[in-house]
Amino acid sequence: MSDTSSLMMPSGTDTNCGYVALIGAPNAGKSTLVNKIVGSKVSIVTHKVQTTRSLIRGIAIKDKNQVIFVDTPGIFAPKRRLDRAMVNTAWGGAKDADCIGLIVDARKGVNDQIEDLLDRLADIKLPKVLILNKIDLVQRDTLLALAQQINERVKFDETFMVSALNGDRTDDLLDYFAAHMPRGPWLYPEDMISDLPMRQLASEITREKVFLRLHQELPYASTVETEKWEQKEDGSVRIEQVIYVERDNQKMIFLGKGGKSIKAISMAAREELGELLGTKVHLFLFIKVRARWVDDPERYREMGLEFPV
């Protein structure tokens, strides 16, 4: 996400580096936690479930330890092809990691989704950490009982109680993971906070604004792709993005009366992209109808997902 070609990674043989996969039910707070630990926005966050679609990697440094947090899509019972791709990606990210962090919304406790997760986790032979999130909204006695209940189902190496939103105990969590990363060289330069290409991050930011603006099921029937990225002579950036929808009537909803909705989405995305890039951004959004884009392998490649057959 930045020009790191001139920076050197730590030399020597005393560095540690590894991957931590964060899994959980939708809206458990995985993206919020990654952003808080990394110290910058690398994964979009909305009030709607299943916002994260692909693996987002946030990179944190603690002393001579590099911890790569993998924000996975929320795991749920898949109904569509896109759902299956997201769930497969989440479990694939978990199994490829050095450590797994299960994030549980402490307000919801153990529901059917958590039961299913615990069943799957029991068969994965990797270090596992339980992270009870949103502790600022739950009484301590309830938290202790919940931690005991979950650890009786699956033995976790450690249990943390955190608030990803306000940062309570997230430093302790980073300290723990840093101390348990395998010996090895850093995989990313020191000032790199994510391996997400800027074009894809720009698409994600616009998709976040779509979710926040359209408070219905419509965002799930859409995807955003950055088609053009041009650096202008005055230092500004021209970005052209396409929002793909499945039907003509969806296109009209995205536009809104007098183009009000698409203008609001564009303005919000342009403002955040300008802050992120530190320069003026000229953002142009186009809405295209592509019937059954959810069955198009190319769209999955753009999202960083494997196409499920």
TrEMBL record:
<keyword id="KW-0997">Cell inner membrane</keyword>
<dbReference type="GO" id="GO:0005525">
    <property type="term" value="F:GTP binding"/>
</dbReference>
<comment type="similarity">
    <text>Belongs to the TRAFAC class TrmE-Era-EngA-EngB-Septin-like GTPase superfamily. Era GTPase family.</text>
</comment>
<dbReference type="GO" id="GO:0070181">
    <property type="term" value="F:small ribosomal subunit rRNA binding"/>
</dbReference>
<dbReference type="InterPro" id="IPR030388">
    <property type="entry name" value="G_ERA_dom"/>
</dbReference>
<keyword id="KW-0342">GTP-binding</keyword>
<dbReference type="Pfam" id="PF01926">
    <property type="entry name" value="MMR_HSR1"/>
</dbReference>
<dbReference type="Pfam" id="PF07650">
    <property type="entry name" value="KH_2"/>
</dbReference>
<feature type="binding site">
    <location>
        <begin position="24"/>
        <end position="31"/>
    </location>
    <ligand>
        <name>GTP</name>
    </ligand>
</feature>
<comment type="subunit">
    <text>Monomer.</text>
</comment>
<feature type="region of interest" description="G4">
    <location>
        <begin position="133"/>
        <end position="136"/>
    </location>
</feature>
<dbReference type="GO" id="GO:0000028">
    <property type="term" value="P:ribosomal small subunit assembly"/>
</dbReference>
<dbReference type="InterPro" id="IPR006073">
    <property type="entry name" value="GTP-bd"/>
</dbReference>
<keyword id="KW-1003">Cell membrane</keyword>
<feature type="binding site">
    <location>
        <begin position="133"/>
        <end position="136"/>
    </location>
    <ligand>
        <name>GTP</name>
    </ligand>
</feature>
<keyword id="KW-0699">rRNA-binding</keyword>
<feature type="binding site">
    <location>
        <begin position="71"/>
        <end position="75"/>
    </location>
    <ligand>
        <name>GTP</name>
    </ligand>
</feature>
<feature type="region of interest" description="G2">
    <location>
        <begin position="50"/>
        <end position="54"/>
    </location>
</feature>
<dbReference type="InterPro" id="IPR027417">
    <property type="entry name" value="P-loop_NTPase"/>
</dbReference>
<comment type="function">
    <text>An essential GTPase that binds both GDP and GTP, with rapid nucleotide exchange. Plays a role in 16S rRNA processing and 30S ribosomal subunit biogenesis and possibly also in cell cycle regulation and energy metabolism.</text>
</comment>
<dbReference type="GO" id="GO:0005829">
    <property type="term" value="C:cytosol"/>
</dbReference>
<feature type="region of interest" description="G3">
    <location>
        <begin position="71"/>
        <end position="74"/>
    </location>
</feature>
<dbReference type="InterPro" id="IPR009019">
    <property type="entry name" value="KH_sf_prok-type"/>
</dbReference>
<feature type="region of interest" description="G5">
    <location>
        <begin position="162"/>
        <end position="164"/>
    </location>
</feature>
<feature type="domain" description="KH type-2">
    <location>
        <begin position="214"/>
        <end position="291"/>
    </location>
</feature>
<keyword id="KW-0472">Membrane</keyword>
<feature type="domain" description="Era-type G">
    <location>
        <begin position="16"/>
        <end position="183"/>
    </location>
</feature>
<protein>
    <recommendedName>
        <fullName>GTPase Era</fullName>
    </recommendedName>
</protein>
<keyword id="KW-0690">Ribosome biogenesis</keyword>
<keyword id="KW-0963">Cytoplasm</keyword>
<dbReference type="InterPro" id="IPR005662">
    <property type="entry name" value="GTPase_Era-like"/>
</dbReference>
<dbReference type="InterPro" id="IPR005225">
    <property type="entry name" value="Small_GTP-bd"/>
</dbReference>
<keyword id="KW-0694">RNA-binding</keyword>
<feature type="region of interest" description="G1">
    <location>
        <begin position="24"/>
        <end position="31"/>
    </location>
</feature>
<dbReference type="GO" id="GO:0043024">
    <property type="term" value="F:ribosomal small subunit binding"/>
</dbReference>
<dbReference type="GO" id="GO:0005886">
    <property type="term" value="C:plasma membrane"/>
</dbReference>
<dbReference type="InterPro" id="IPR004044">
    <property type="entry name" value="KH_dom_type_2"/>
</dbReference>
<keyword id="KW-0547">Nucleotide-binding</keyword>
<dbReference type="InterPro" id="IPR015946">
    <property type="entry name" value="KH_dom-like_a/b"/>
</dbReference>
<dbReference type="GO" id="GO:0003924">
    <property type="term" value="F:GTPase activity"/>
</dbReference>
